[in-house]
Specification:
The protein is mainly alpha-helical and 218 residues long. The chain contains twelve helices and no strands.
Length: 218
């Protein structure tokens, strides 16, 4: 039996992994996704100005179990969970960075060897990572999913612009703008992020106007 995550006001909590492992063993993929997103939402609502040993242990424990189960080849992410996981990519990157794992690089290498790995790779892929995937190759696989990833990828600019390697990674992906980008997907976030990432140009390169198909009724 697992306890529910505490409120954001709680100073610390200890992960109970039994629930996650049971859901995995029972192949209840949607329920496992829900559990992951619930736990991630707790971290999203919690601000850590510093970490005491118990909090550090709790974050390390979550990251350890999340990365292990999330990277299992038989775990399937249902269609309705694709966007929530892509939206959580920046948060996951931050949690891993403050854990003793520091990076998801080994898990990207593991996922690269698996089938049906696209959404998992994009969820664990951030500007902090050493690998740099081709933006064009990602859009070749799925323009719709790549558009969601592309917009969320830059949401972490506020914590990464001080990291020179990550900053250059953000700049390289922004310069690799793909014309197949769906500009109606969270585009307002990118418009703000570009002022920090591409301050010289202050706009996305070769960005087409949104394509609108509906017309007002006369």
């Amino acid at each position: 039996m697992t306890t529910a995550p505490p409120s954001p006001a709680s100073s610390s909590w200890i992960l109970q992994p039994g629930r996650l492992l049971d859901l995995y063993r029972q192949q209840q993929w949607d329920a496992l996704s829900e559990e992951f997103l619930q736990l991630l939402d707790f971290f999203r609502q919690t601000t850590y100005l510093s970490l005491d040993p118990q909090q550090q242990y709790a974050i390390d424990a979550f990251v350890k179990h999340f990365l292990y189960l999330f990277s299992q080849e038989d775990y399937i992410i249902g269609d309705r969970y694709v966007e929530p996981f892509l939206a959580a990519a920046g948060l996951i990157s931050n949690l891993v960075a403050i854990s003793h794992f520091k990076t998801t690089d080994p898990y990207l290498a593991l996922l690269e060897q698996q089938k049906n790995n696209f959404v998992k790779l994009l969820t664990l892929y951030s500007a902090r990572n050493s690998p740099r995937y081709s933006v064009k190759a990602l859009f070749d696989i799925s323009p719709a999913i790549a558009s969601q990833w592309y917009c969320h990828f830059f949401n972490s600019y506020y914590s990464l612009c001080a990291n020179d390697v990550a900053y250059r990674h953000l700049q390289s992906h922004m310069a690799a703008f793909d014309d197949r980008l769906d500009t109606l997907v969270n585009f307002h976030h990118m418009n703000f992020a570009v002022t920090y990432i591409n301050a010289e140009g202050d706009r996305l390169p070769h960005c087409p106007p949104p394509h609108l198909t509906s017309r007002p009724q006369p």
